[in-house]
Sequence to fold (86 residues):
Amino acid sequence: MKKIVVALITVVAFAGTAFAADVIDMKKGVKFTHKKHQELLKDCKKCHEKAPGKIEGLGKEWAHKTCKGCHETGKKGPATCKGCHP
Ligand code: HEC
Ligand code: HEC
Ligand code: HEC
Fold:
């Protein structure tokens, strides 16, 4: 348990600096403000079900379900095609 906590703290501490880009370029012109979402949502698990890093099964289906899904339910963030694909 202790090891896991330390590992998590390390990941969080590094995510904002070395490892994670502030903005991640995704397919079809999507500029994903990763850092802003991290700060806004706090919970990494909203997108990283297992552990922070590459997302298994990332693709159109995942993105439309996860990204658009939250924007629609929360009524915040773009939910139209052009809002994400300029
Ligand atoms: C709203 C969704 C979302 C949230 C919340 C989120 N991430 Fe991510 N994160 C992503 C996506 C999308 C990628 C790109 C994944 C890929 O390319 O496979 C990513 C990539 C990463 C990467 C890989 C490095 C990189 O820049 O590509 C790290 C590390 C990471 N996230 C850490 C975190 C941590 C730590 C948190 C919580 C503080 C967090 N993320 C919260 C969506 C999110
Ligand atoms: C909340 C943001 C969001 C909204 C709204 C959204 N998309 Fe996407 N869409 C994405 C992301 C992110 C990806 C890329 C996932 C990836 O990198 O694999 C994507 C991928 C796609 C792809 C696949 C591109 C490829 O090369 O694989 C198509 C086509 C697409 N979207 C069309 C649409 C259409 C049409 C709409 C409106 C009905 C729409 N999207 C609305 C975020 C969004
Ligand atoms: C759990 C909720 C949630 C998830 C998941 C989520 N978002 Fe968001 N997103 C938000 C909220 C809330 C805002 C509004 C921020 C604001 O208005 O300041 C937002 C704003 C945005 C914006 C508008 C520009 C900006 O940075 O404010 C874009 C583009 C966006 N999100 C793309 C994405 C993509 C792409 C994904 C998936 C990889 C994603 N979001 C996943 C909650 C979410």
Notes: The radius of gyration is 14 Å. The mean pLDDT is 86. Residues 39 and 83 are 21 Å apart (CA to CA).
